[in-house]
Design a protein that fits this description.
By secondary structure, the protein is α/β, with parallel strands linked by helices. It folds into 2 domains: about 1-170, Peroxisomal Thiolase, Chain A, domain 1 (3-Layer(aba) Sandwich), CATH 3.40.47.10; about 175-325, Peroxisomal Thiolase, Chain A, domain 1 (3-Layer(aba) Sandwich), CATH 3.40.47. About 35% of the residues lie in helices and about 25% in strands. The longest helix has 22 residues, at about 215-240.
Length: about 325
């Protein structure tokens, strides 16, 4: 038994914040943001929760596959911005969909969250524990952004995207292999310190702005390219493939320069590298499924294509997967 993606879905909030808009908020420029990151706009959730975004993306995937929500066996939401600490955001999504036969839970692996969730879902299907699974990456990151910090506020946006997995006995399609890694030595590269058991919510925590994202950008950039290339080689080796066998690479959309650097090291031409960061900025766990959905809807993915998915997440997670479409 193998798992395959039978449909995709996405949702981006209507409100848009352009680079020109950011010039009025912090000391930055459209030219600098575009050149350094590749980002042109980011979407902002206006009173919408993470589960609202996730629900709309999941509904599109379900409708596209013509599947009844009651057929869904599991819902996995990858997010670092849950609706609330308790209960899991996936439970709100389950209720909104009416998927009452599904079990549902969240995972947090930062920007690699979707890949981790996809691997879990793949394992459930391979072990006959479920057949149809919604895997969703959803974030409302703009609630965690310090709008006084120009090094981070220009990078992130809100959005959600989803894939619907189904079981197949066809060995010539679906998820072929996945590799996951992490290293807790680098938790300080990107961090939101509070509120949590380490730093419970208090006036001091708020005054120190510990509730917002803090990031060491240069160190993260250097490690990202190396780790993404290495894990991509690793997962390709598992299925006796090389970069030359890849029809399309879909990376975490964190920074255009990172994606292009990985593509060059892999020897992949630009037309085989999906870049959608200009349309939605860095949406953490939502970025890979957003890019996948965009490529699918725009006809860039054909039946039989070999897709290489790879990611690099904060503090520190990285992963890659091979899918035959």
């Amino acid at each position: 038994m193998r798992s395959k993606i039978i449909s995709t879905g996405s949702y981006l909030p209507e409100k848009i914040l352009t680079n020109k808009d950011l010039e009025k908020i912090v000391d930055t420029s459209d030219e600098w943001i575009t050149q350094r990151t590749g980002i042109r706009v980011r979407h902002i959730a206006d009173k919408e929760t993470t589960s609202d975004l996730a629900y709309k993306a999941a509904l599109e995937a379900i409708d596209s596959a013509n599947v009844d929500p009651l057929e869904i066996d599991a819902i996995i939401v990858a997010t670092v911005t849950p609706d609330m600490p308790l209960p899991a955001t996936a439970l709100f999504v389950q209720e909104k969909l009416g998927a009452k036969n599904a079990f549902a839970f969240d995972i947090n692996a930062a920007c690699s969250g979707f890949m981790y969730a996809l691997s879990i879902a793949d394992s459930y299907i391979k072990n006959n524990l479920a057949k149809k699974i919604l895997v969703i990456g959803a974030e409302v990151l703009t609630n965690m952004i310090d709008w006084q910090d120009r090094s981070t506020c220009v990078i992130f946006g809100d959005g959600a995207a989803c894939v619907l997995l189904d079981a197949t006995e066809n060995e010539d399609e679906g998820i072929l292999s996945m590799k996951l890694h992490s290293d807790g030595k680098y938790t300080d590269l990107m961090i939101v310190e509070a509120p949590g058991s380490y730093k419970p919510c208090s006036k001091d925590v708020i005054d120190n702005r510990d509730i917002y994202v803090k990031m060491k950008g240069n160190e993260t950039f250097k490690m990202a390219v190396r780790h993404i290339v290495e894990v991509s080689k690793e997962v390709l080796g598992d299925v006796n493939m090389e970069f030359s066998d890849v029809d399309l690479m879909i990376s975490h959309q964190a920074n255009r320069r990172i994606i292009e650097s990985v593509g060059r090291r892999a020897g992949l031409p630009a037309e085989k590298v999906v870049i959608s960061i200009d349309k939605h900025a860095n949406t953490a766990a939502a970025s890979i499924p957003l890019a996948l959905d965009w490529a699918h809807k725009n006809g860039e993915i054909k039946k039989g294509d070999i897709l290489l998915l790879n990611s690099f997440g904060a503090s520190l997670t990285w992963s890659a997967g091979i899918i035959k479409w």
